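User: Batch of two.

Assistant: Item 1 of 2:
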Amino acid sequence: MFTRPPRHPALRGVVELLWVGRAAPVSAQELVIPTGQLHLAWRACGAPIRLGAAGEQVERAGVLGGARTEAHVHDTPGPTRSVGLILCPGAAPTLFGETARALAGQHTGLESLWGAHAARLQERLDEAVADEAVLALVEEALVARRRVAARPPGLREALAAIDGGASIGAAAKGIGRSPRTLNAWFDEAIGLSPVAWARLRRLQRALRLAELEPDWSTVAARAGFADHAHLCREFRAIVGVTPTGWRARRHGGPYLRVSDGRAAIQFYTEVFGAKELFRLVDPDDGRIGHAELELAPGVVIMLSAAYPEQGIHAPAGPGGLGIHLHVDDADALLSRAVEAGGTLLRPAQTQFYGERGGSFRDPFGHEWMVGHSVEEVSPAEMQRRWDSMAKG
């Protein structure tokens, strides 16, 4: 992804960052974690933006994402080029003539805010070739729509104080205002309460730290959470999964060789509720040359039929890949797997490391270890429990 700050002086303090990104040639769903800021996005490739788990909201000329406190899902069709920006807090009236409060908790089509100007900008974005040309068009459109709009005095200082870990009361006192006044300012300019803003910013700090730090207890302490359990509660409330589940869903993507591609797709659909993204069928004999399935938002597996003549073999029995997957209900999934023809290897049990899970072998020789979190346990506590178990 290519990112940069705005270059036009009129957009300083209005736009924090512009970006251009390209999706891989596969359709999938992306889990979007809220930041507390408003986002504006377009597809610069002729494809619409589809929002919601089923892609039920379709926007063809850009969309503005208002402030929200829970993660959401949107479709990422591929291959695509997307362009967008992150607004500075309090900038909504400057570009859209609306308060952040009026835009909060929803996605608003740009056409409803800019009218025909949005459609004309979309046409130009679709025609632009270079990424820098796309961003230049966006900046030009923003400058043309910019209007003078006052922001609450001291808001920027209060935001910086809260981001630095100050309490709401201390942030209000620092700018000579009451907490009630600060709450009203946040509601109008950001679309969130100061408490909600602080929660989201703390979570974002944790996500950045988690990129380099594997221990969630350390992440919790450095990000400003009371303890590891506090981080887990906030993660569930905002993201919808545990920290461990979030990290697991960001990785994966095994490539499975199977004896029967069509049967495998049917099995994984029945057991996991997989969404078929696309398939390529061999024109000579009808074998599945390649297929991609999304098992959960952002978790994609690929598979193909065996091609012995090319040295590509499927397991003849046990001995295929071993795959671990976090699911919502391990017991129910294991039951579905057995009903669909899988072989139960280990019934669901609650383990010392905070997960309830079991395993099965699918009809194509691959072993699936599935589990759902019942308790967040730090690595140190896992080791302590294991040591205790070993001592009897």
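Item 2 of 2:
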Amino acid sequence: MVIKLGKIYMDTNVLYESKRRFEFIYEKFPPEEIWLSFSGGKDSTVCLELMIQEAKKRGIEFINVLTIDLEGHYKMHEEFLYRTFQRKDIKIQGFWVCLPLSLRNSSSCFQPKWLCWDPQSKKDWIRKLPSAECVVSLDNNIFDFFKIGIEFEDFIIEFPRWLKNYFGLEKVCQIIGIRTDESYHRYLKIKAEKNKEFFDGNNWILIHKKQKKFLDCYLTHPIYDWTVQDVWKYLYKKDYTKVYDKMYLLGYPYSEMRICQPYGEEQRKNIGLFSKIEPDTWIKLQKRVQGSNFAKKYNGKYLLGDRKIKKPEQFTWEIWTRILLNSFPKYLKEHYLKKINIFLKWWRKELYNDILHVYKQNENDKYDEDGLYIVKIPDEPTAEVKALYKTRRIPSWYRIAKTLIKNDYYCKELSFKQNKNEYEKLEKLKKKYGDINK
């Protein structure tokens, strides 16, 4: 047994271990309580095939899946979803969700959010509504927790609770095809034990801290230790979405092949592939959401903040931040001002220890003509500044400017997290200022 970089390499293989995990899942959960989150991507397809193998071995005739269709997909990917739900060897049942969810658009500062399957934009939809029997749209919605504009992440959290109530289940086992090989964040999701509860001591079956209010709803990651090479070694003789073949022919690296909505901060890296793989879909993609062609043209360049950002030499980062902030539509300027001012107040508390209530505005707070809270912070994180503050994530105008350049709507660069009801907040700001382009 060899230990390397915190990982333990065993004298076995990932396929054997994953089969053992699926055996464990079907021993601990009845088949009606086991649900696969199936995007149609390579990882969830591996999970599907392993589930089918275990179900057949036990004489089980169905597999439950949840597919959330985010509209911005290739037609050939939709064809794969149809083939999956129409399989002859086993019944694939569940929900193919086509509901208006609120999604990030990092391709444009004028439209930071968009609604997939928005009923008011039906004529501009990238694809027609699928016609499969299992499709759930606004016309036949059965989810009591759903509201137009719900965040994708909130839908995923609420779904197992709904399953328990709707079908009268005792517990729910959600199978998710994430792999630690894809990112350090996903590695920590499995490796880190702080604030987590595991099922029978297995770190790949857990209750997410956001789901503690929904007792007996488990998140399982049975292929967490697979590499991308393992995935393709397993899938190469099986059916999968042929979008990957097109990506391969275009010379795209295995590690960067993604099947997801194309406008997010990470996802926009692949947006230009639409123009090469399905030009007709690319035309619809540009019309549907603002900034598509901009993201395609400047992907990987400093203009989108994908790498080290730049500014005109004659400006400091503080001045450049102010110029950027004043270039936004009024509703977005107010959104960013609120986040930036909380950030500045918090760091003033940390640096000078003179504010007791950081998140509450009071009469002693002072703001300048741009609406920014008045506090002195470094212009950029030089080596001298880092040594002075003795922390890696120091406050700086460079950091704030990068947030604006990246169209980081949730301000994750400033250590914020995504909040609920972001869509409603954005719509209220739009109504407050009327014409969103002013």
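The chain has two domains: 2-235, 317-433.
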